[in-house]
Design a protein that fits this description.
2 copies of one chain form a homodimer. With about 450 residues, the first copy, chain A, is α/β, with parallel strands linked by helices. Chain A folds into 2 domains: about 150 residues, Aspartate Aminotransferase, domain 1 (Alpha-Beta Complex), CATH 3.90.1150.10; about 270 residues, Type I PLP-dependent aspartate aminotransferase-like (Major domain) (Aspartate Aminotransferase, domain 2, 3-Layer(aba) Sandwich). Helix content of chain A is about 45%, strand content about 15%. Chain A is built from 15 helices and 16 strands. In chain A, the strands form 4 sheets. A 7-stranded mixed beta sheet of chain A has the order 3-9-8-7-6-4-5, sandwiched between helices. A 4-stranded antiparallel beta sheet of chain A has the order 12-13-16-15, with helices on one face. Chain A has a two-stranded parallel sheet with strand order 2-14. In chain A, about 55% of the residues are buried. Strand 10 of chain A pairs parallel with strand 1 of chain B. Chains A, B: One of its GO terms (molecular function) is pyridoxal phosphate binding.
Chain lengths: ~450, ~450
C-alpha cells in the first residue's frame, strides 16, 4: 500500500511515547479481553443505570424552569442549542465546591469542559506562549498531562514526588534550574490526593508549604483532583490546595468522570486568576480559557451537562453524599488488594508496595525490569493486566514497578488477578536466578 | 485590581481578532437580547423536544443489544463508561454517508468528535508539524477555522472565493507562492455547499477541477459540509468532493449540529488517507487523529453520541429523510429574505445581495463601511443584529458587506429585521451624502 502521507510530516507528538503508550495499553487490553484487568482506571460501574439518566435530565430541566426561572423557550434553548462557552452547570459546580471542599469561587471563574482532559489542554494552551516556556510536573505523572503538553510543544520537566507526594526541595531546584537556562516554568502540575499513578497524598502541612513555595517562586499550581472524594474508610479529606489558596496561585482541575459518569465526559477548571490586558482592563483567566475552548469544542454538550447537573441537584450538590456506595466499594477493594498482596508476597520479600490512604491505585515494586514486553507476556500467559510504571515517566528509563488499579474489579477478580500476578512474579524471579547462574 | 497574570504572557492567539471577534459578536447579542437576530447561525429549533431525546437514547440502546449483539453488561459499558476514542456511532456515520452522499468509506476511517470544531482542530494539529507549514482557505472563511489554526500557530492564507465558490487560478498561485517562499501548504479548506458566510456553492465541474488541481499540486482538501442537506426547494445536491474523491485527497468534516441537535455537540471527520511510518507500517490518518483526540477530549460523550445514533437509526441513517421539515423551513425563510430584500432595496439601487441556492446565509453589499461600531449602533438604535463580513477575512481590511442568516428566525422576524436594516441603511446613506456635501 503506497502511503498518502508520511508520519514524519505530521506533528512530532504523534510519534512520541506520551501519545503512543496510551494506545499500546488500550491495544493490549483489547487483545486479551478475558484477562483480569488490574490496569483499567475506569470507575465502578455497578450503580449506573439508564433510568437514572432520564431522571437526571428531567431534574435539570425542572431546575432551569423552577429554580432559574427560565421560560419554556429558554429551557428548550438551553438544552438543545449551542450554548454558553463556559457551560450551563457552572453554578452547580461552584455549589459543589463550596459544599464538599470549602472552596469559594465566583461562578464566572468556572469553565465546564469535555472531561478534565480538555480542562488541562485549555490551561496548557493558554500558558504555553513561547518556546521558552516549560511545565513542571510531579513525577510519576498522569500520561494525559504529558500527552497534552507534547501536542502543544510544551516540555514537561519532572519534579521528584516521593512518599510525601512532592519533594519541595527538588521543586525549588527545578524552578531555579529552568530559569538559569533562560526558560519560563509556567506552572507545576500536581495531584495532591491519592495521585495517579503513585497513590501518594500530600499532607496539610505539605500543602501549605507547597503554596508558600509557589508564592515565593511566583509559580502557578495546577491541582488535579479526580480521586479526592475516595479516602479509604473514614479517612480524612484534607483541604485541597485550592481551598487553602488565598492568593489565586492554584488553577483547579475537576472531573465528574469518577463521581457521576465517565460517559458524560464532563469536567471543569476553576481559573480565578486575574489577567491584565495591555489596555489596562483586567479579566479572569477563565475567560481566556473560554476563548480557547470556543475554537476547540465550542461548548460542552448540553445534554451531558444536564445529566451531571441533575446528579448534582439530586444530592444538594454534594458528591460526598452522592458517592457513598462507590466509596464503600473502593475502600473494600483497596483493602482487599493490599491484604492480598501481603498474603501472597509477605512483608520481608523482594516485592514491596505502598498502602495509599484512598483512591484507585497501588504501586508494586519488584526486583526486575517491568516493561511492555513483560505486560504482553503477563496478559498472554497469565491472563492479568496491569500498567508498567515506566509509562508515567517521561525519560524512557526502565522502572522496576507496576501500577495496580482497584476501581473496576470485584474482590473475586482481585484475588484471581493477584494469583496470576504472583505466578508471573515467581516465574520472573526464577528466570532471574537462572540468568544470574548462567 | 492587581493582575495575577499578563495577557501578553499567554498564547498570542488570545489577543488575535480571530478569537476575539467571536466573543465580540456574542457579547453584542447578549447586550441586546430584544434585537431581531439575523446574525445567529444556529439551527431552527421548533422541532426539538425532550421526548425525542429519551426516544433516541432508548433506540440506540436497543441497537447495541439487538443489532450489534452486545450483552447487557456491554451495553451498559458502552453507554456509561469511557469509550472507544474514535467513537461509538462511527458505523452509523458511514451508513449515513453511503445513504445520503454516496460516499463509501471504512468505519475505521471515521473519528467521531465533539462537534465539527474538534474535527477541524484535530486535523490542523496533525498537519501543522513545523513553522514552515501554512494552511490555505477559501475566503471569506468560517472564523472557527481561522481561530483553530491561530491556536496551533498555523498561518492561514486566503484563496479567492468569488461567485463560483473558489477561484482555481488563485488557488494555484497561492500554492506556488507559498512554496516559493519555502513554506509547505498542507491543505486547502473549502466549504463547497452554501458556504458560511458567502452562501456560494461550487458546481460539479468546479468540484472535479478542484480535485484535479489538488492532485496536480499534491495538496489535501479539507471539505467542511455543515449545510449540504439544505438546498432551497427541490434544488440539486451535487456530489460532495469526498464522493468524487478517488485518490484520498479529501478529508471530510461533518456536523450533526444542523441536522440532529446542536446541544449534542457531535461531529466527525473522515480521514481515510494512508499514513506511512518510518518502520514501514501504514495506517489511517484517522488513527493519528484519534491519538490527538485522546489528549484533547479522550472521547466524545457516549450519551451525546447515543442521542445522535438514535436519531440516525430512526430514519434508516438518512438525514435527508430526517430533515424534511427543517429543509422546508429554511427554504421558506431564504425565499422570504431574498424577496424582502428585493422589496426594500429594489434591483437597481446601491444595495446588492447574492441569492444562494440553499443554506443559511445571504451576503448583502452596501455602499458604506460595515464595521463593529455600525453593528453596535444597529443593535442599539435599530434593534437588528447581523454579522459584519470583515469578521470572515483575516487581514482586518474593511469590507462593505454584511451577512444575514435565516436559520433561527420566523418570516415575521425576517420582516421586522429587514425593516430595521432598511432604516439603518437609509440613515447611513443620508449620513454619507451629508459627509460628501460637507
Amino acid at each position: 500500500m503506497t502511503p498518502d502521507l508520511r508520519l514524519t510530516d505530521l506533528h512530532p507528538a504523534l510519534d512520541d511515547p506520551a501519545l503512543t503508550s496510551m494506545n499500546f495499553l488500550n491495544e493490549v487490553a483489547q487483545r486479551y479481553p478475558d484477562a483480569v484487568s488490574l490496569a483499567a482506571g475506569r470507575p465502578y460501574e455497578e450503580f449506573f443505570d439508564v433510568a437514572t439518566l432520564h431522571r437526571h435530565l428531567d431534574r435539570f430541566r425542572r431546575h432551569l424552569a423552577e429554580d432559574l426561572g427560565q421560560s419554556p423557550t429558554q429551557v428548550h434553548r438551553t438544552l438543545f442549542q449551542y450554548g454558553r462557552t463556559k457551560g450551563i452547570v457552572h453554578h452547580l459546580v461552584t455549589r459543589n465546591l463550596a459544599v464538599d471542599e470549602g472552596i469559594t469561587v465566583d461562578d464566572e471563574a468556572v469553565v465546564v469542559t469535555v472531561g478534565c482532559q480538555e480542562a488541562m489542554f485549555l490551561v496548557l494552551r493558554a500558558l504555553r506562549a513561547t518556546p521558552r516556556d516549560v511545565l513542571l510536573a510531579v513525577a510519576p505523572t498522569y500520561v494525559g498531562l504529558t500527552g497534552a503538553a507534547r501536542l502543544l510543544d510544551l516540555p514537561v520537566r519532572p519534579v521528584a514526588g516521593g512518599p510525601a507526594g512532592v519533594d519541595l526541595a527538588d521543586l525549588r531546584v527545578q524552578v531555579h534550574r529552568a530559569r538559569a537556562e533562560g526558560l519560563r516554568p509556567r506552572a507545576c502540575y500536581v495531584m495532591p490526593d491519592f495521585a495517579n499513578p503513585s497513590g501518594a497524598s500530600i499532607d496539610v502541612a505539605g500543602r501549605r508549604r507547597l503554596l508558600d513555595l509557589a508564592a515565593e517562586e511566583d509559580l502557578l499550581l495546577l491541582e488535579d483532583n479526580p480521586y479526592g472524594l475516595f479516602p479509604a474508610g473514614d479517612g480524612d479529606r484534607p483541604p485541597t490546595l485550592k481551598a487553602l489558596d488565598t492568593a489565586r496561585r492554584v488553577v483547579y482541575l475537576g472531573s465528574f468522570a469518577k463521581t457521576v459518569l465517565p460517559g458524560a465526559r464532563v469536567g471543569y477548571v476553576v481559573a480565578d486568576q486575574r489577567v491584565g490586558a495591555p489596555d489596562g482592563t483586567v479579566g479572569l483567566l477563565a475567560d481566556q480559557l473560554a476563548k480557547i475552548k470556543s475554537m476547540v469544542t465550542v461548548n460542552t454538550s448540553a445534554l451531558a451537562q444536564a445529566v451531571v447537573g441533575g446528579a448534582l441537584l439530586e444530592h444538594g450538590c454534594s458528591l460526598v453524599a452522592a458517592t457513598v456506595r462507590e466509596r464503600a466499594a473502593y475502600t473494600r477493594n483497596l483493602r482487599h488488594l493490599v491484604a492480598g498482596l501481603a498474603r501472597r508476597f509477605g512483608d520481608a520479600g523482594p516485592v514491596r508496595w505502598n498502602v495509599p490512604a484512598g483512591g484507585f491505585f497501588v504501586v508494586v515494586t519488584v526486583p526486575f525490569g517491568v516493561d511492555d514486553a513483560l505486560l504482553d507476556r503477563s496478559a498472554r500467559e497469565y491472563g492479568v493486566l496491569w500498567t508498567p510504571m515506566a509509562h508515567f515517566y517521561d525519560d524512557g528509563a526502565p522502572v522496576d514497578a507496576l501500577r495496580l488499579s482497584v476501581s473496576a474489579v470485584t474482590p473475586a477478580e482481585i484475588d484471581r488477578g493477584l494469583d496470576r500476578l504472583a505466578a508471573l512474579v515467581a516465574d520472573e524471579l526464577t528466570r532471574r536466578v537462572g540468568t544470574a547462574v548462567r
